[in-house]
Amino acid sequence: MSGLYEFDDKPENFRAWQSSLTNAVAEVQLTATQELDLMTKWLGKESGEQMRCIRAVHANNANSLSHARRGRDCYAAPEIIEQSLFQRLDSFPRIAAKDQT
Q: 12: number of CA atoms within 13 Å, CB side?
């Protein structure tokens, strides 16, 4: 579990975070509920809140992990990652000719 870190709620970093979670889970035998608990613990503020809502809705469902995977689509979808990257580009400071060093 030492390779885990908290997800920063940035879609472009989700796949790396998910990979570290998958590697950590592969080392131990966890039930779906335990994996969901671990995932929720290491999610960021916004993503963790979404996962807690999904978990609350599907509390009695034995296959709650499949619902959690559906919740991950908020960060892993290519169009969400693209939107996040374009927002970062738009917020990058403009460089003018007079800014040469």
A: 8
Amino acid identity for residue 28 in this structure = V
Q: Report helix, strand or coil for 10.
A: coil
Of 20, 32, 19, 17, the closest CA to residue 63 belongs to 32
What DSSP designation does 93 have?
P
- Cα→Cα distances 12→22, 41, 68, Å: 17, 20, 19
pLDDT digits 0-9 by tens, 30-88: 877 788 888 888 999 998 888 888 778 777 775 655 656 666 777 778 888 888 889 88
pTM to 2 decimal places: 0.70
